[in-house]
Amino acid sequence: MTENHISLPTNRAFVIQLQANSDRSRFAHQGRVEHLSSGRAVHFPDEHELWAFIDSVLAAERPGQRKPES
């Protein structure tokens, strides 16, 4: 396998921690997500809240977008 060296912007980096799920056949949809460059973090009860947080952070990073108040 060859390694690809892709430069990824650090302001778009997130850490996602998933809650342990006793049923290994199902994806754990609960957990915590943190935006690394801002330190903003939330606990999410489902995948929709996870993506809503990521979308809001990325929208705030776009030029011309107003940053949401914390």
Give a description of the structure:
- It is a single chain.
- The chain has 70 residues and is an alpha+beta fold.
- It has a domain at 30-37 and 44-62.
- The protein is built from one helix and three strands; from the N terminus they run E-E-E-H.
- The chain has one helix at 47-61; strands spanning 14-18, 31-35, 41-44.
- The chain has a three-stranded antiparallel sheet with strand order 1-2-3, with helices on one face.
- The longest helix is centred in the C-terminal third of the chain and has 15 residues, at 47-61.
- The chain is globular, with a radius of gyration of 15 Å.
- The N and C termini lie far apart (43 Å).
- 9% of the residues are buried.
- The mean pLDDT is 84.
| Largest sheet properties | 3 strands, antiparallel
Name the overall outline. globular
Which class do the helix and strand fractions yield? alpha+beta
- The helix fraction, in percent, is 10-25%
Instruction: Output the helix-strand order.
Output: EEEH
Number of strands: 3
Distance between the termini: 43 Å
How much of the sequence lies in strands comes to 15-25%
Mean pLDDT: 84
Rg, Cα atoms, Å: 15 Å
Low-confidence stretches: none
User: What's the tally of helices?
Assistant: 1
- Give the strand line-up of the largest sheet: 1-2-3
Task: Give a brief rundown of this model.
This protein has one helix at residues 47-61, and strands at 14-18, 31-35, 41-44. β2 and β3 (41-44) form a beta hairpin. The chain is α+β, with helices and mostly antiparallel strands and 70 residues long.
